[in-house]
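Onboarding guide, step 5: your first structure request.
Type a short instruction followed by the sequence, for example:

Predict the 3D structure of this protein.
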Amino acid sequence: DLSEIQLVAIMKSLLVFAVASAVAVNGQLLYSGYPYAAPLTYTYTPQVTKLVPKEVEVPVETLTYGIAETGCKNVFGFPVPCLAEGEARKRRDADEAEAAAD
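The system replies with structure tokens like these:
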């Protein structure tokens, strides 16, 4: 295991090495003669355009849904479909279903 003093010495030596290598480069990383290594510059000025709102009439078709007036109302007073005679309590038989299928 390394002691704390040895770790501090290693970190200081790595710092010195990093500073020495940065000095040795002497700015060559910023521009080394190649156009793609040059600092990023923007030479194009974008053209600013202003939006002029132009009102255009757009036809909007709407559908209205409603309940057909039957004259029947429920206990709350809302219109409901009328009940045919015997429709609510009518039981279906299997014989009627076979006759309807044929």
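Each response can be followed by summary notes, for example: The helical segments are 4-25, 94-101.
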